[in-house]
Design a protein that fits this description.
Length: 210
């Protein structure tokens, strides 16, 4: 599967829900999901709402997760197999692993406006983990890991501008943010209530285990 370079709103319309692919812009009145004439699935037959088969329902749940976190099929299956080997609920383990991806954490800290912007920030070497540069987007963070920025004016200016654009932003309980530096620490593992995507993960497990 190649990199998707089409309109982000088209992806949200296909899934029938807001995936917040454009960050804060998705919370405005311009969001196409909120506009009635654009809330249908893309394409000339989007107005036809046929009944999905059991396979189709499970496929759509999997696609929601993939598109929400911006992962490809092979990446997703790698996370699924890793989650299946962990103790506990496989579906929750899968979502927890995806939530702990570095690009998602950078976005959740409001260092970037969207996950796509967070991936660019990481790839360009602006983000450090435990005082070492990490340019891998799917790096999995653990408890105690510290996220800092490259010691350069460009890196600090970019992130501080993003933080100042949303002064009322609050981080989730499993992340501890220091706005002055800026820097953050993972103080706990995310729980199911911290994961905001409305998806039935047990259907995804059934789909991937078939």
């Amino acid at each position: 599967m190649g990199r998707y370079i089409g309109p982000s709103c088209r992806v949200c319309r296909r899934e029938g829900m807001n995936l917040f692919l454009k960050g804060a812009k998705c919370e405005t009145a311009k969001c196409q999901i909120e506009r009635r004439q654009r809330s249908l699935a893309p394409g000339m037959h989007g107005w036809r709402k046929g009944r999905l088969s059991e396979y189709g329902v499970r496929l759509r749940e999997k696609q929601k997760i993939k598109r929400y976190y911006g992962v490809y099929e092979q990446q997703f299956m790698r996370f699924f197999h890793k989650a299946s080997r962990l103790p506990g609920n496989t579906g929750e383990n899968l979502l927890q692993l995806l939530e702990r991806r570095l690009d998602n954490v950078v976005y959740k800290l409001n260092f970037a406006a969207s996950r796509k912007s967070a991936r660019q920030l990481i790839t360009h070497g602006h983000v450090h983990v435990n005082d070492r540069k990490v340019d891998v987007n799917d790096y999995i963070l653990n408890i105690g890991d510290k996220i800092t920025l490259k010691n350069s004016e460009k890196s600090l200016k970019r992130v501080k501008a993003q933080l100042e654009s949303n002064p009322n932003f609050t981080t989730q309980g499993w992340l501890q943010l220091d706005r002055d530096k800026p820097a953050a620490t993972v103080v706990a593992l995310p729980t199911r209530t911290d994961i905001q995507i409305p998806v039935e993960e047990h259907l995804v497990v059934e789909f991937c285990s078939r």
